[in-house]
# Entry
Amino acid sequence: QVQLVESGGGSVQAGGSLRLSCAASGYTTSVGCMAWFRQGPDKERGMVATFNTIGGATSYAESVKGRFTIAKDNAKNTITVYLQMNSLTPEDTAMYYCAARAGYCVYESRAYSYWGQGTQVTVSS
# Structure
């Protein structure tokens, strides 16, 4: 089992920045991919960014390329993934979820076995 705990959400004005964190614990050696998803009001949950734990390859949704950066930090017995979000717009307002899976990164949320509780990001104009 893998446990994920997010932090770092909040409210910010358009153009501002936030950094989200996701701490993974438990059987983290099984994790092949860490990812961030988001779900806005009346929208489906969609991929924001992914990080392959083997090799470090990353991918981003087109809407966040050039503004968001995903990075991973390894510490003893845990994995922490960050999502640095810059130049935020009201369209970025959503609940952000950290997710993990054993295999390589994919874009479909249903392929992820482990999820955090979510952290709210609200961007005002």
